[in-house]
Amino acid sequence: MTTSFSYQTELPLYAEADVVVAGGGPAGIGAALAAARNGASVLLIEQRGFLGGMATVSLVPSYTPYSDREKPVIRGIGYEILQALKEAMQQGLKEKFRDVIDWVPIEPENLKLILDAKMQEAGVRLLYHTFISDVIRGEGGRIDALVIHNKSGSRAVKAKWFVDATSDADLVWRAGGAFQKGDDGGELQPATMCFVLSRLNRSRFEAFASEHGPLHTHIERAKESGELKVLHNWAAFSFYNESDCGFNFGHVTGIDGSNADDLTRGAVEGRKLVHHIADWLRRRIPGFEQAVVAQTGEQIGIRETRRIVGDYTVTFDDFTSCRSFPDDIARNAYYIDVHLSKPLLDGKTYIDKIFLPPGKSHGIPYRALLPVGFANLFVAGRSISADRTTQGSMRVMPTCFAFGEAAGTAGALLTQANGTDTRDVDIDALQRQLVKQGAWIGEDHLQEG
Ligand SMILES: Cc1cc2nc3c(=O)[nH]c(=O)nc-3n(C[C@H](O)[C@H](O)[C@H](O)COP(=O)(O)OP(=O)(O)OC[C@H]3O[C@@H](n4cnc5c(N)ncnc54)[C@H](O)[C@@H]3O)c2cc1C
């Protein structure tokens, strides 16, 4: 029986750019905008027909905190997008979030529109509905081109610098680079099919919750009685207005988001779980009586897949000791937030959370964006080089914007300087430029002034 086929084809060149960004999530957005605003020609390739990554693809309903509970830590492009999103909110919500930068709700259609416009303003060339399926390697650790597939066929894309912002390190994987995945036993954080419920009565729900306790206490009871079949009692939700609310609730275990069969099972099981949850909310929670499932994620939300092996790997010790590095390009203050598929020793806790004190953060060095063995490739986003626990903190969208902004800025600076390796970058110049753009890389680094 034939178990494999050989298939060769000539690939016409579709485009060439200084910087090609693979993936349009927070990391890819930061990278594309930063590179283009610094004068590089940029092509951003995204498999969906819109930008935003998990916020729009999988309907993750809010941005984790931008602050360290005392001051903004994520600034620059990520902050600019947060402000634009707040500006686009409906009246009422807009007032509520005017001075808030932590846990801001994401209305996905507003975000898509904002991001399209920002790319156009910056002169980024967009290519949607296009999957990057392979990498053509050249000499000396260089990537020569990417292989892309879309409605127009299969073609190649060339660049001086590539940013892998696919969140699964697809480019590194296809090019045979080193990576890790999950814990020592291959365990990965569970996935979640996020969803939007419409036709809610927010005031009625809030009155109920203030009198009878928050939603999670009701979930806990329903879970214990067997009425609600969810892994644990945790649910995050954000109202977009009086009647529509985004939910990040319910886990599907055993899903490897870099495996198409698993993603398929996640889609089927995830949607089923959403309707089970919605049915329970409708029957049991005042304010939800008329709830309709308006939307589920186009893909189940994936918290964890590959982590590259970079020139530096950010560790749990770096996190707890709030370490700074001479080549810091961003800082992170978000807590360790590892969702588990089996409870901790107490038999109840399904999220491993470790917080830094208020006002504290740790640095992320440029070297964590550089996959070992590659000369012209950056990795930005949740697959950057970190140990598993620390990835459980740095994976969130605000920090991913910052990683992308650093990679894109470095790509543009290297283009101007005719560099040949990502390690050629002038770190002082990169840090100065990031600060000039409004990014924050810590008190020890010069601030714009
Ligand atoms: C259920 C869940 C809840 C979460 N909750 C929060 C939260 O409350 N707040 C928060 O800030 N963060 C949260 N996170 C984390 C956060 O959403 C992600 O870790 C973050 O979006 C990662 O950013 P990224 O840019 O690396 O990748 P992504 O956001 O995953 O974007 C990657 C993009 O690349 C595209 N892509 C991938 N491969 C290819 C390819 N081969 N060809 C073309 N395009 C490709 C994808 O379509 C996607 O648009 C949550 C995550 C999940 C899954």
TrEMBL record:
One of its GO terms (molecular function) is oxidoreductase activity. The keyword Metal-binding applies. InterPro entries: FAD/NAD-bd_sf, HdrA-like. Its EC number is 1.-.-.-. Keywords: 4Fe-4S, Iron, Iron-sulfur, Metal-binding, Oxidoreductase. The keyword 4Fe-4S applies. It is an enzyme of class 1 (oxidoreductase). PANTHER family: COB--COM HETERODISULFIDE REDUCTASE IRON-SULFUR SUBUNIT A (PTHR43498:SF1), FERREDOXIN:COB-COM HETERODISULFIDE REDUCTASE SUBUNIT A (PTHR43498). This is FAD-dependent oxidoreductase. It comes from Cohnella cellulosilytica.
